Amino acid sequence: MRGTVARRASLLRSAGLSLGVALLLGGCGHLGADNDSGANAYPANYKADILGAMHAYLNNPTGVRDAALSEPAIKTVGGTTRYMACLKFNAKKNANDYAGMKEIAAVFLAGRFDQFVENTKDICAGVTYAPFPELQKLPP
């Protein structure tokens, strides 16, 4: 009798482990899918997210000039499809000089800022920019 119980317990543990691994791997595959609607949720607070990220991205976030931003749009980069917004600006290089115009793209995952991409030739080609005065008013 004890042998039967031990065999059943062993089978249940095996089945439970297999099910757990399947659920874990299935969950990972689901989260990484490019067509997952959750991963490509529209970034409703994209301006606030970009401002927060720019505060950390820039060495000196004060005195930014000529800031402009595009509306988020679905773009594909490196085989990954995400909402992206293009941003151009002229940030300070040091206390008195400006670095010149720079263009970057903000990438969003699940409706929140994820990262900046600096090689924007294909991403930002043909986008329409609107003034982004909030970036020009960042505090130190």
List the helices and strands and how they pair.
Elements: H1 2-31, H2 46-57, E1 65-70, E2 73-77, E3 80-92, E4 98-109, E5 112-117, E6 129-131, H3 133-136
Antiparallel strand pairs: 1-3, 1-6, 2-3, 3-4, 4-5
Describe the 3D structure.
- The chain is an alpha+beta fold and 140 residues long.
- The chain folds into two domains: 1-31; 46-136, no CATH class.
- Helix content is 33%, strand content 32%.
- The protein is built from three helices and six strands.
- It has helices at residues 2-31, 46-57, 133-136, and strands spanning 65-70, 73-77, 80-92, 98-109, 112-117, 129-131.
- Strands 1, 2, 3, 4, 5 and 6 form a six-stranded antiparallel beta sheet that branches.
- A hairpin with a 2-residue loop joins strand 2 (73-77) and strand 3.
- The longest helix has 30 residues, at 2-31.
- It is globular and about 45 Å long.
- The relative contact order is 0.18.
- The model is unreliable at 4-34 (pLDDT under 50).
**Strand content bin:** 25-35%
Mean pLDDT: 81
The biggest sheet amounts to: 6 strands, antiparallel
Radius of gyration: 23 Å
* Oligomer class: single chain
Instruction: Indicate the percent of residues in helices.
Output: 25-40%
State the total count of DSSP E strands.
6
Feature tags:
alpha+beta; 3 helices; globular; 140 residues; six-stranded antiparallel beta sheet
